[in-house]
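Incident review: delayed structure delivery

Summary: a single-chain prediction request sat in the queue longer than the usual turnaround. Root cause was a stuck worker, restarted by the on-call engineer. No data loss occurred. The affected request and its eventual output are reproduced below so the record is complete for anyone auditing the incident later.

Affected input:
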Amino acid sequence: MAVQEMTSADFEQAVTGNELALFDFYATWCGPCKAFGPIFDKASDANPDMFFGRIDIDKNQDLANAANIQAVPTLMIVKKGHVIYQEAGALRAADLDDLISQAKALDVDAALAEAKADGADQNELLEEQEQ
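Output delivered after worker restart:
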């Protein structure tokens, strides 16, 4: 599936309408964003079972603020409506592939229950599962 340019208006539908979605928050003036773009595009081509969206923070400042984007590029992964990963920084292809594999394997319901029981931050589900 090709990467779709997202706006604030269609972001919620992308989150709720897809079991697993990756979002690249970027800016056109950002060098690392330009380097990460082709990597994100290739991952999209290799994973047609997932949704890939790209959000220009300058055109969608309200969405960037709501998502607490502090730096670009920022990758956000949402599974079953829950943000399971959100980190700033360009990734290498192998690192993105590894994150995608972890996201696919993650049992969100079990991870949420475990995080709640441990009093951990439920917004960092992939990081919790890695330990």
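Verification: The CA atoms of residues 39 and 78 lie 19 Å apart.
Action items: add queue-age alerting; document worker restart procedure.
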